[in-house]
Specification:
Distance between the termini: 48 Å
Strand content: under 5%
Oligomer: single chain
Largest sheet: none
CATH architecture: Orthogonal Bundle
Length: 110
Amino acid sequence: MNGIPHNAIRSLALMALVISLGAATGLAQADGAAIFKDKCSMCHGPAGIPNPMMAKALGVPNVTDPAVKAMTIVQIETQIKNGKGNMKPIPGLTDEQLKAVATYFKSLAK
């Protein structure tokens, strides 16, 4: 094929795949951050640390709370989708958006 070795074409295709997967992961993180900012930060705080009065009044845990840190992405997704305690469900999110915002929230605990 135009003098380009087959191995080089495969290497370039593999590199393009890796780059596109990395970009997709970055976009999911960005979408998760935007969704969190729009739908969650008013109670959970922009960095996952709620205002102390909000935390006390509504029982909103800090993202660094051991129980929150122990939650899996799937458990966080479930709480976003179904709500829990004073937290109302967040309607209208796709499965991909749920995963993105849950992944973003989990990243705040690090």
